[in-house]
Design brief:
With 114 residues, this protein is mainly α. It has five helices and no strands. One of its GO terms (molecular function) is inorganic cation transmembrane transporter activity.
Length: 114
């Protein structure tokens, strides 16, 4: 559990660091406009901070999210038998006309349905 909280902390640190790098880049561009200098590229420290922040973010997101499943559907279907492939719980229906027929059947047990 402690390892998961460390990864969540790294996730927050990565986001804060990336936001700081973006803010520093915008501030650098503003400085260049004020001093009427030409923009060639961002300083190396801002570039390095942005790249390291992205690496920390990707790593921590992969650790926090958990296990991935296989993209190919055939891998999941290999472990199932033919009987379980047709079993789709989302198609189960419990509100049907059988309830109303059962109510009539209980009221008049001698009546027969032809």
């Amino acid at each position: 559990m402690a390892v998961k909280s460390i990864h969540k902390f790294l996730l927050v640190v990565g986001f804060v660091s990336l936001i700081h790098a973006a803010y520093s880049a915008a501030q650098h561009r503003t400085y260049l406009r004020i001093t009427e200098q030409e923009f060639n590229s961002l300083p190396f420290d801002i570039q390095l901070q942005a790249v390291l922040s992205l690496i920390v973010l990707v790593y921590s997101i992969l650790q926090v999210v958990g296990d991935f499943r296989e993209i190919r559907a055939a891998v999941d279907l290999q472990a199932k038998s033919w009987e379980t492939l047709g079993n789709i719980p989302s198609f189960y229906m419990f509100n049907h006309r059988g309830k109303s027929l059962a109510a009539q059947h209980e009221e008049n047990p001698e009546a027969s349905v032809d």
